[in-house]
Amino acid sequence: MAPQFSGQMAAAGLTMIAAYVLIFGELIHRTSAALIGAVVMIGVGMIGGFYGQAEAVMAIDANTLFLLAGMMMLVVLLRPTGGFDYLAIRIAKWSRGNPRLLLVYLALAVSLISMFLDNVTTVLIFAPLTVLITRILSLNPLPFLMAEAMLSNIGGAATLVGDPPNIMIGSAGGIEFTRFLVHMAPLVVVSWAVTVVLILLLFRRELAPSGPGAQIDLDERRAIKHPLRLRRGLIALGVAIVLFFVHHRLHLFPAYVAFIAVALALVLLRPDPESLFGKLEWSVLVFFAGLFVIVGGVEASGLLDWVGFRLARLAQDPQTLLLTCLALMWVAALLSAVVDNIPFTVTMIPIVLGLEQQGVNITPLWWALAIGVGLGGNGSHIGATANVICVAESERSGIPEARITPLGWLRVGIPVMLVGLVVASAVFVLLFDFYRG
């Protein structure tokens, strides 16, 4: 039975819009706006009878929050050793001081790593490293941080383990790792290449070489301050990386993997707990908790189901299957730019599976959904977890011109998202028989 638009949906939608106006307008800090929005959403839900305190607690994605917290701890423990400084000097030397070459190197590194590790973990490691590199080269870190977040989102869309929605889609559709990679590769590679070119054009002034290339006279070997602590910290990080590759086979949550590494680091490094916990980005964690509660209210109201059902009705006619795939791709992207892509994916999966029982070929819908939620995260600074991490790092850098504002992100993120969607749509149309089979 088709869900009907209701007052509950309207109330939840308006509450989310009001919270996002506060976040994007920077009328108050984004964490405060998310907390206020969460409190109001619970109140509206209790009055409307569709969302309560218990549902709000359940809506908070503890796996994501603990993954963030665990990887933040590892980064905090490794930073004083000088390991990041060593790597920063090496990368700066490889780029020969050329800003454009440096951006391409960093973009390629985060994209490839995000294919096999969670893109959140990748950005948590690379964001502080990028600030160090740009300090060495006297560059503004803003374009580099934004490029890393956006291209880690695109890279993560290529594999089953690169992004949580991919794992859900693969599980629901019975898609194995190799098949997922083969089908997503054309969409991701073309979108990645076009995005890199577009970012280089949009930031052409910031990335213009000021001379023949800086001579980096620093000795990276002298950057390492505590070699023994660095080796021990890298052991813990290495354990996390290995387990991230196989966590789905061992049925381990990514957050649990992160805390296995943290527990090992605590044994090996014996840090002062007060100092360790005092350096975590608590405002980022609280911000995400608030967003999860807000989006949970929207989901509980039935608004996402209403959108998903109307989109899925197009697919009942085999003649409109291609149109449905493209519509799903674009709707998934646009919604993922403003709400977390996980609840939308969760909502769409049973709808897509239901279409299969009506004789619809749902295979191409999986690929459209996967690339849509992957590209959509680039649209806004809250569209993906990696984005928020890079925004927080830009603020923590203490460089005024490096601060990434919501409107500043939109000026770059919206063109990047739209161009990526146009290119992905063109590839999808050209290779539709391949994706349909």
TrEMBL record:
Domain of life: Bacteria
Keyword annotations of the record: Cell membrane, Membrane, Transmembrane, Transmembrane helix, Transport
Protein name: Arsenic transporter
Membrane topology: Multi-pass membrane protein
Location relative to the cell: Cell membrane
Family: Belongs to the CitM (TC 2.A.11) transporter family.
Gene Ontology cellular component annotations, sorted alphabetically: plasma membrane
GO MF: arsenite transmembrane transporter activity
Domain Citrate transporter-like: 20-372
Transmembrane segments: 6-25, 32-51, 57-78, 99-117, 180-203, 230-246, 253-270, 282-309, 321-339, 412-435
